[in-house]
Design goal:
Elements lengths: L1 E7 L4 E7 L3 E5 L2 E5 L4 E3 L1 H13 L2 E6 L8 E2 L1 H8 L2 E5 L2 H11 L15 E3 L4 E4 L2 E7 L8 E5 L2 E3 L21 H12 L6 E3 L14 E3 H7 L9 H14 L6 H8 L27
Parallel strand pairs: 3-6, 6-8, 8-9, 13-14
Antiparallel strand pairs: 1-2, 2-3, 4-5, 4-7, 10-11, 11-12, 12-13, 14-15
Helix pairs in contact: 4-6
Length: 285
Amino acid sequence: MHVQHFFDEGTSTLSYVVHDGHAGIVIDPVRDFDLESGRTSWASAEKIAAYIDREELDIVHVIDTHAHADHMSGLPFFRERYGARTVTGALVGEVQSHFRDFYDLDPDFPVDGSQFDLLLDEGKRLGFGSLEIEALHTPGHTPAHMSWRVGDAVFVGDTLFTPDYGSARCDFPGGSAAALYDSIQRLYAMPDETRLFMCHDYRPGGRPVACQTTVAEQKRGNVQISAHTTRQAYVAFREKRDAELDAPALILPSLQVNIRAGDLPAPGISGRSYLKLPLNALGSG
C-alpha cells in the first residue's frame, strides 16, 4: 500500500491518494475558493491529478470523511476526470437536513445523500485493486463523520489532530464532545502501531507539515486527550474551548457546496452559480 499526502496551505487541509500501484482512491480533496473574489479553481486537485497521471493510477473512489466546514470539497473533479465514484458516510442526510433549513434551500432539496454515488455505513467495505477500505463511524465533530481504514492505516478526518494540537471541535450541529471522546477511545483501542492520517495540520510553532501519527503517539502525548484523560475532563475541556472559538473562515460558503457532494449550486439566469450568505446566523448575539 502506498500513501501520498498533499497539503493545502490556505486551509491547512491534508488530502491523500492511497493505491497499490495500479488502483487507488482519493480522500478529502479540496476545491480552491478565494473568499475576496468569489473565484473557485481546481489548482489543488490538479496537483493530485499530476501524481495520479504520473503513477498511471485507476482512481476508483473519491471519499470525504465528512461535510467539511473549512473548505469546499474537491469530489466533483475526480468524478469528472477519472470516473471515480463519490463516497461519504451513510448519515450525511442528517447534516443535509439541518443545512437545508439553515440556508433556506428549496424544500425539495434531497436530504437522503443521493448527491453522492455511494453511502457507506459502519463496517461496510469497498475494494480497489488489491486493497480494501472499511468505513468506521466516528461521530462527535459531526454526527455523520466517518474514519476510513485501509490495512494498518486509518484516515481519521477531523476526529484527531496531531498530538501537539489535540482534537476536533464539537460545536457544529449534531456535534457532541461525549461522542467524540467515545470515537477517540475506539481509535485508541487499535494496535499501538496503527498509523493515523490527519485531515488537517495547523503546525504549532511553525514546525514542518506532519500528516501521520500512531495510536501509541496519540495515547502518550495528545495535549487534549491522552490515554489517561477521563470522559468528564475531556467533555468539560472541549465544551469550554469550543465556546471560545470563532467560526471557520469558509464555513458559510463551504457547507452549502459540500452537502451537494462538492457541486456548486445550479446556475441562475446569468449562467453563474450563487452562494447564500445567511446574516446574523453564527456567533454571539
